[in-house]
Specification:
One of its GO terms (molecular function) is MHC class II protein binding. This protein has 4 helices and 15 strands. By secondary structure, it is of the alpha+beta class.
Length: 362
């Protein structure tokens, strides 16, 4: 019975709107963007608000929000509140909140006066690209749609006769329709304005606003801010190559594997034996959990690897020293050889001269 009464009431509302024209309800039209808080006035309120009832209608659905000053809607219960003047306050409006709101007064179960109607239109801006896809050089499409009560309003009629406009502007308020960098299209069937552009480096943190104008008056606007993702710097450790003898073990595949000390030098043997003795002593004194044993095995492997690295660096250093000595000693050896050769040559020449002199004297 109540549903039939609501349907009849809605039919009368639509009929009155058609007979009087949409302009007859202009003063009761409220525009807001999604995410904002909005206040809907009740023009027929009685004192105390205990007689006030708020109903919501959109398409074929009618929901009672407030009954005699008490909230009854469970879905939007936390977002709704009743003002001291019996106005309806809605927090963080969504596009689903658009529609017809009716304020009605009851005294002793009898309706008092006429209904007060408020038509809520919600502006919503979205992007076709996810946040990770928005980057310089990429293309992005922004959609600005006005959600309204389709039963009483059409976007075609509002645009044509009521001067409804959806306009894209930049941060300075300049209409982007005049900028060839932006491609803007409008669909009157969905009351949707689309903006497509290729992003530039300087577009980071830039704002573009979609405005709703009704009869050249700015009603509301929704802002979209371009945000580029900051690349996170990841440092990849450079691999360390360690040459091992054939008897040296490879790194274990799992932490639970038993590590065998590497026997590459006397110092490594002593270090490995010391580490093994210390580990055995600790196992006898205390009982370790699997996690502690795993950590100890990891420490052994790290210690063994560090010892191998130290030995390898020491060997390389010795080779470098030998090469340096050879490089510096080579010229000296060559010079000594040359001096010896020359001295030998001089001795031979002196000996020949002595032989010649002795022959002449004879």
């Amino acid at each position: 019975m109540a549903d039939k009464r609501h349907m009849c009431l809605r039919g009368l509302i639509i009929l009155c709107a058609l007979l009087t024209g949409i302009s007859g309800v202009d003063d009761n039209q409220v525009f807001c963007s999604s995410g904002e808080d909005v206040r809907l006035s009740c023009n027929n309120a009685l004192s105390g608000c205990t007689s006030t009832t708020w109903n919501y209608s959109n398409h074929s659905e009618t929901v009672e929000l407030i009954a005699e000053g008490i909230k009854t809607d469970t879905e939007r219960h936390e977002r709704l509140s009743l003002g001291s003047d019996c106005s309806l306050n809605i927090k963080k409006v969504t596009k689903e909140d658009c529609g017809l709101y009716t304020c009605r007064q009851y005294v002793n179960k009898q309706q008092q006066g006429t209904d007060a109607h408020v038509y809520l239109h919600v502006l919503h801006v979205s992007s076709s690209s996810s946040q990770s896809e928005i980057r310089s050089g990429g293309s992005v499409t922004l959609s600005c749609q006005l959600y309204y009560n389709y039963d009483l309003f059409t976007c075609d009629s509002s645009v044509g006769s009521e001067g409804l406009e959806l306009i894209w502007v930049n941060q300075a308020g300049v209409n982007l329709q005049t900028d060839s960098r932006f491609q803007i299209s409008f669909s009157s069937e969905q009351c949707l304005s689309s903006l497509t552009t290729t992003l530039l480096n300087e577009d980071h943190n830039r704002e573009w606003r979609c405005q709703v104008k009704h009869r050249n008056q700015l009603k509301t606007s929704a802002t979209y801010t371009v945000k580029y993702q900051t690349p996170t710097e990841t440092k990849t450790p450079s691999p360390v190559t360690i040459s091992k003898s054939p008897a040296a073990p490879t790194q274990p595949a799992s932490v639970d594997s038993t590590l065998i000390p590497v026997s590459s030098s006397n110092s490594e043997k002593k270090s490995s034996q010391t580490t093994a003795a210390a580990s055995t002593k600790q196992e006898k004194q205390t009982t370790h959990t699997p996690e502690t044993t795993s950590d100890t095995q990891q420490d052994k492997w790290i210690f063994t690897t560090n010892t191998e690295m130290t030995s390898a660096h020491t060997l390389i250093r010795v080779i470098v020293i030998i090469v340096e000595i050879a490089v510096f000693a080579a010229p000296t050896v060559i010079l000594l050889q040359i001096i010896c050769v020359r001295r030998a040559g001089r001795k031979n020449s002196l000996h020949e001269k002595e032989i010649e002199m002795s022959t002449v004297l004879q």
